[in-house]
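Entry 14. Structure prediction run on the chain below.
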Amino acid sequence: LLKYATGSSPTNSDSLARMGGVVSNGLFWLRFNRNTNATDVTLIVEARTNLLTAAWRGIATNVNSSGWLPPEMVEESGVGATNPVTTSVKDNLGLRSDFMRLRVTRP
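Output returned:
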């Protein structure tokens, strides 16, 4: 499902499903590719401060590719020009989240 959501195929050996992170202006950004044609999946970026005691909390979601909520936490480059697009989600808490993940589900 991750390969499909990021614009690849399970039979392809590529880097489209890779995720990464960067710190900009004191905020951590999770970066990943998003397949704009995968309108039947939900992407949820989650964060937590501790793997042993803290619970995962959703910080941004794109329900059925209908748009990101909250929109101010997400930047996408290449929209309309390329597929997949590079998507970046920032942790607005200012590096208080030690861990971030991308969860891909089917509604």
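The helical segments are 2-5.
Filed with the rest of this week's runs.
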